[in-house]
Amino acid sequence: AQSVTQLDSHVSVSEGTPVLLRCNYSSSYSPSLFWYVQHPNKGLQLLLKYTSAATLVKGINGFEAEFKKSETSFHLTKPSAHMSDAAEYFCVVSPYGGATNKLIFGTGTLLAVQP
Amino acid sequence: SQTIHQWPATLVQPVGSPLSLECTVEGTSNPNLYWYRQAAGRGLQLLFYSVGIGQISSEVPQNLSASRPQDRQFILSSKKLLLSDSGFYLCAWSFSGGYTDTQYFGPGTRLTVL
Fold it and tell me: Is A20 an 8 Å CB contact of chain B?
């Protein structure tokens, strides 16, 4: 069965320090993997997507994620946190790696950024 | 470029009242359309998806229904709201054909049922 696990429900960092949000997945096929961000009372915004072209994926707002097949992980990182990064982040897997209508969402990680 | 709209942005309704939420997409043709609900502390739940006009697939049995009267319009309805229908409703779209798995979300509707 396909699944996605976000290992931390809450992460708190200081402004200017690195961000690491952890995600593990399970998929029988070559998956597509996504990170979305949601600010309070807003829709989800696509940060980045992995589709097997390159294991290190760069996204918007300085975020990037590395696909590690051996570890079944897709962790999201940013070198230096900004106050505006405070939001909830969702790791998402499209288990069939292509034409599918059903995404599998993680339970989310709430990122707090302290001044 | 493509844009997705939802309205209303917020809604407070009494138990037993009807519901109609609307979602429209601009800048693309024949998109796949999706309705999700995000309840507090429960993540995103796919409610319905549609691959074309009049074609609706339901993921979760409930008192909600969806319709797609036009190519880029997706409506979520209920005849009688329950307290448990409260939540944040998100509409999303994706390209049809080929690789369809990237979904783009609207701004959402906050529904409170009292």
Answer: no
